[in-house]
Every structure is written in structure tokens, then in C-alpha cells.
Amino acid sequence: MRGDDAAGVEVVKRLFGKVPEWTKIIDCEMTPENFLPEIEAYKPTHVLIVDAAEMNTEPGEVQLLSLEKMLNTAISTHTIPLSILAGVLAEEVKAKIVFLGIQPGDTSFTENMSPEVQKAVKEVAGTILEVAKEIK
Strands across the sheet with 96-102, in order? Predict the structure, then answer.
């Protein structure tokens, strides 16, 4: 993993086993396109994609982006841009797609995330847990 580029994976790790049973958490790592069949089979009404995203902001800043904004922004480090994946999901699954981006600071080849991104990961995971528990 590349430093802060692991932000999405780290959020997912914090959510496993803690979200309500009606919520499915998938760790897609570097190849989210490989998980399209699993996502389609689950038939979600909503999909939240969490990932490190180059948004030209301060490290650790978090932004919630609509599918429309994602489609107009090249923000991902994945083989297939997440905007394309989100577009396919919206079309095939008919789910509402939202992207939560965490601005990386250090994407060099290291196992350590910057303190700013570590803090953002903790806050994002905590907020997702709070919201998920309140919905149902």
C-alpha cells in the first residue's frame, strides 16, 4: 500500500463486524472492479465508496461527492477510475452512489499513513458507524 492511499482500506477495516447486519462492507483494495458481481448480487439501494482522493486540499480533508461530481473529476489511483465504476454501479444496480474522499498527503511506498489521514480515517469510520446505527 502507498502511505495515505490506504485510507479507504483502513476505514473498511474499522467497520468490519461493527455495522448493522443490513449493511454490507466490502474491502475492494486496489481492484474494486473485481467486486462488481458481488455488489450487484447484494442489490443495494445505496453505495458509499470511501477512498483516498486527490482533491487538491489539505491532507486529511474529507469531502462527500455526488456521482455527478465524481464523473467530472479524475480523483483516484485505481486501475479503473472510481468514477467509471460508480457509473456502472448506478446503471446496473440502480443504486444511489456517493463518494467519500479523503485527501492524501503521502502516497509514497510506505506502510505508514500521515497523522492527518489517520485522524480522518478514525473520524470517518466513527461517523459511518453512528449514521448506520441511527438509520434502522
Answer: 46-52, 96-102, 62-66
Residue 133 grid cell? 446505527
CATH, domain 3-30+41-135, list 3.10.20.30, 3.90.1150.10, 3.40.50.1450, 3.40.50.620? 3.40.50.1450
- The 10s digit of each residue's pLDDT in 47-84 is 898 988 888 899 999 999 876 676 555 555 555 667 77
Greatest distance between any 2 Cα atoms in the chain: 40
Please answer whether residues 47 and 93 qualify as being in contact, where contact means their C-beta atoms are separated by less than 8 angstroms.
Answer: yes
> Which strand (E) or helix (H) includes residue 100?
strand 96-102
**Partners of 26 in the beta sheet?**
none
Provide the whole-model pTM.
Answer: 0.85
Output the nine-digit C-alpha cell for 20. Answer: 448493522
Q: Are strands 62-66 and 96-102 parallel, antiparallel or unpaired?
A: antiparallel
Which region holds residue 29: left if phi is over 0, alpha if psi is between -120 and 50, else beta? left
